[in-house]
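Tokens for Glycine N-acyltransferase-like protein. Go.
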Amino acid sequence: MFVLHESQQLQILYESLEKSIPESLKVYGAIFNIKNKNPFNMEVLVDAWPDYQIVITRPQREEMKDDLDHYTNTYQIFTKAPDKLEEVLACPQVINWDQAFQIQGCQENLREAIRKISASKSVQVDYVKTVLITKQMPMEPNDDQVDVMESFKMKESFQNIFLDPSHAGLVNEQWTFGKNDRSLKYIERCLQNFPGFGVLGPEGYLISWVVMEQSCEMRMGYTVPKYRNHGYMKKMSVHIMKYFIQKKMPFYFHVSEHEKYHQALSDMKFKVAPCGWHQWKCTPEKYC
């Protein structure tokens, strides 16, 4: 594996990965941010060029200073050749198995290679699979989408806002994957560099929100229990969709298989991607 540096190569790769959406979404979204100021100081690795089979996006080495910070130490992977993945993942120049980290992707066939290498290196793996939700790429507002957007008008006593780092504590308190000091720092960094969207209730407090992270995925979504089942997340989505369409950004997120939002998502013309959303949290036994 080697790093792609040239902007022209990154653009060619980006356009090529679009043909493999939704399976390529994690690396596709990461490369979008790498091409646009690269605020998380990430890099792109390929096994060959231009006829690549494996693409990995990861933080540059100087970013991965904290061996326990699996939020920063995150790798996004896409492969056309899962049979070659085990050899690649075993290489210490590709993944640092001596620290805690995460692997994220939209392909379940990454699982076997990760399982084998982690077992050989005495690394504990916590695997999570959820439902991947996407929009047609590239996103363009068709007549149906415009009608949906216009049908969800925010009540005058509620207001759409952009989040800022001062909201990180509240977001962290309610994030299933968070609730700790490292996740707080991670959320602060996301809000310093990427859009976060929220709804203010009539009392002037946040009642619903969602935050974009380093691979362009919308995550950390939450609605205060008092305001659930009233469509505020759906109404906030109108604001989000207009923003992403204007910026021509990738847009996707994941939800639990048991969440009750599937009808609302269908109303907003979102699609369930059959490949799913997958995350492997890897922790060396010495840190367990």
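Residues 142-152 have pLDDT under 50 and may be disordered.
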